[in-house]
Amino acid sequence: MKLSRVVITGVGLTAPNGNSLTEFRHNLLNGVAGVERIDVRYMGTQLAGVCHYDALKYQKKKEVRVGTRAGSIAIYCAREALADSKINFEAQAKDRVGIYIGCTEHGNVETENEIYNISKFNYETKYWSHYHNPRSVANNPAGETSLSLGITGPAYTIGAACAAGNMGLIHATQMLRLGEVDLAICGGVSESIHTFGIFAGFKSQNALATHEDPKKASRPFDKARNGIVISEGGALYTLERLEDALARGAKIYGEIAGYHVNSDASDYVLPNPERQSECIQKAIARAGMTTRDIDLVNTHATATPLGDIQETQGIRTVFADSPDTLVNNTKSFIGHAMGAAGALELAGNLPSFDDLIVHPTINVDDLDPQCALPGLVLNHPKKAKRVDAILNNSFGMLGINSALIVKRFVA
Q1: 410: three-class secondary structure by DSSP
Q2: Upper half-sphere CA count for residue 193 (Cβ side, 13 Å)
Q3: Of 25, 162, 190, 409, which one has the fewest beta carbons inside 10 Å?
Q4: Can you point out the beta strands (E) in 311-407?
């Protein structure tokens, strides 16, 4: 069976260093990081990637108050993606639109807040918000988006830890090819900086980044890296079958070429480089490519001492015969946006198809020799000879791995 070609026709995002693809890309090419200090309940001042988008651009004050941060981010990104796609959304059959949003976790923020609030009233449950249940269900970000846009097709979230952003695009591609929908809004969102539990969990693992300069705290591959910067954000895309995109004369950012998802089945937290390598290799095979066809690899590397080494070991093994493949990392600019990470990181690299410039990994003052790769782009952008295929790595806790390949669209 010949599968439909699926293409990206719109991008909407908010990141700690930009609220549109144009702004995000500009800051990635100019070394502008988006990490700052915030106050975290029970934990004091912490480093975080904070988004500063205009929530009221697409929502009323009451909608923001009643809803969730993740839902608000999703609504902003979805509407920005639709606007960017220039699709006639009013004429679109709303039951033929699907929403597939990757999310690391959802509901912790709302539950923590409600418990904190009723603690002021001797835990009297009459003060517990009646909005709590719809706020905290796992499908909330997609559900809030469907309410905002009047979409009556399938709308749900995909839980895949920090691989969730990639998974949103992968699942949307599958649904389009199955003919379940005609337009997919997909990607990933995260509200993680609003829950102290995330910070406490990583701190208990000695995995929270520290640095006197917040902008330099996220430093994958550097010898002095000391942990993760937790971030919020979102990136959603409009995906369409190629024939539909061509019929309306849409701008095409790129074409979904291949993907693979697998599991480590070996540890709750520690990654398995062998399974990661296998995931990358099978994505390349599904795309009908070889390693030499991959021009750019965006790494998942989170700036943890062991995780970065294991991922680069895997990349070194897979791309041993492809020394010209360039490698970069986006978390050095924005921290780890959890469920949004893969989707945001892909977005930042898509313009490379047009300008042939690869954004760097910043904050690498002293490269760890165990993380050295021939094509690693450090601290300054690099002009590439060719960018026809981008491999986007996203891996998550409990051993979920995803690799997504997007290629330059050629009719």
Answers
A1: coil
A2: 28
A3: 409
A4: 326-328, 357-358, 382-383, 389-396, 400-407
Q: Give 84-116 pLDDT, tens digit per residue.
A: 999 999 999 999 999 999 999 889 999 999 999
DSSP 378: B
Q: Which fold has domain 257-407?
A: Peroxisomal Thiolase; Chain A, domain 1 (3.40.47)
Alpha-carbon distance of 47 to 119, in angstroms, equals 27
CA distances from 83 to 69, 80, 169, 178 (A): 21, 5, 19, 26
235 touches 187 (CB < 8 A): yes
Tokens of 10: 């719109």
Say whether pLDDT at 36 is over 90: yes
Look over the chain and give the mean of its residue pLDDT values, rounded to a whole number. Answer: 97
Strand partners, 242: none
Task: Indicate the class that CATH gives domain 6-247.
Answer: alpha beta
Find out whether 6 and 176 touch, Cβ atoms under 8 Å: yes
Give start and end residues of each alpha helix (H) in 178-234.
196-204
Q: Which two tokens stand for residue 295?
A: 């021009």
Cα separation of 4 and 6, whole Å?
6
CB 349 within 8 A of CB 296: yes
Alpha-carbon 248 to chain mean position? 28
Intra-chain end-to-end CA distance of the chain, in Å: 20
Q: For helices 164-177 and 341-349, what crossing angle results, to 10°?
A: 80
Q: Is the pTM for the entire model greater than 0.90? A: yes
Query: What amino acid is encoded at 202 in this protein?
Result: F
- Would you please indicate which residues are annotated as catalytic (active-site) residues? 162, 300, 336
Half-sphere exposure in the Cβ direction for 190 (13 Å, CA) = 32
